[in-house]
Design brief:
The protein is α/β, with parallel strands linked by helices and 435 residues long. It is built from twelve helices and nine strands.
Amino acid sequence: MTGEIMLRPHQAEAVDAIVAGLEIRPGQRIARNGLRGQVPLHYGNGPVTVFATYASLPVLIESHEGSYGLPMDVWDLVCVDEAHRTSGSLGKAWAAVHDQEQVPAMRRLYLTATPRIWMERPPRRWKRQGGGAAAVDRLPEEMACSMADEKIFGPVLWAMDLSDAIARGLLARYQIVVTELRDERLTLEKLYGEERMEEHVRGERLAVLQAALLETMAAHRLERCITFHHRTIEARAFSVGLGRVAGRLHAADPDRHPERVWSGWLSGEHEPEMRAEELHRFGRCAGRAVMSNCRVLGEGVDCPSVDSVALIDPKGSAVDIVQAIGRALRQKPGQNKLATLIVPVFLGPDETPEDMPYSASYRPLVKVLSGLRAHDERAVEMLAIPQEDLNRSKPVSSWLGEAPEGDDDEEERLLLRFGVQRDPELVARMVQYNL
């Protein structure tokens, strides 16, 4: 090595102290175990900031117990990010962050975009045989860690709802595109009955969804999409087979579909380095790209180039759904993009638009709207009002965008889009009945 290594003042001070402390002076007797010394990372009462993961909580707890030397002092402030992860059972490992004995702190600040509120389920509509009151699902005693409990999480000091964040330009405006599908091989009995988990049914369903996704991306001129799956094997299969489907669509209509579509997939079993590399390729590749994942990209991933997400299996909780949608809402300052949430719906062979308010086929859409309602109540509530009943003189919520100059531009303001025009009264009835 050539050249000198420049040390900062505190580094030079530390080196001088170490050299002096381990120096062997003339005539000095050396102990059998040799000379020893230590340089603690932190000593005394000066300011210190520690960044840790929830998985590192045991190390912090041991530090307060004195396992690594002097016991650590009480924290002035503990910031708990993604705080919804610490809710639920008080017996789980991550809930230790709430324990003042294990992690002592003068103050705790909990931050989250998706609060989790735990409560007992309402009484069932049926009664036990022989009469009596309806059964109630009691909340287990240990599952008392709800973000509504101020004794644990404290009061809400400040909050910003989704509509407000969009109005301020912090998040992108969004639309929900409902992709309605019909396939004579995939009856509702197969999709929701006992055969739904059989491999040939799941395979046929994925094949239909691959083509539907690419058609939807072409129709709405989308370039970067993340698909969410319930099983790793399906995320991989969706990604591996997407190129063949893209080739067939290109051969049938080369002006509408590109010849190649980049595709990749991620799961929780992949190493962090591989995830980062795959996400880098996804964000930087030219042309249309699709990243499939199973329980990996739900939170903690910032990729502003993503303009759409597709909930291939919307089976998660409301929090999981909103976290997934959030992958498309990230935007650069001043980008003013429109994020798209794609929700596929399989219809029965004889279903008509008039069946929509009461059809079980729209359960995936209802689940998504239920999740959104907890974070963007104004937007979902407006779906329950037929468009022709809205007073145009009143200001419209920010998620609808700027007021149109003429009646022809009204379609650009819709939050919910279907493949064909729908009567606003039907959409309102569906929201009123299901939500």
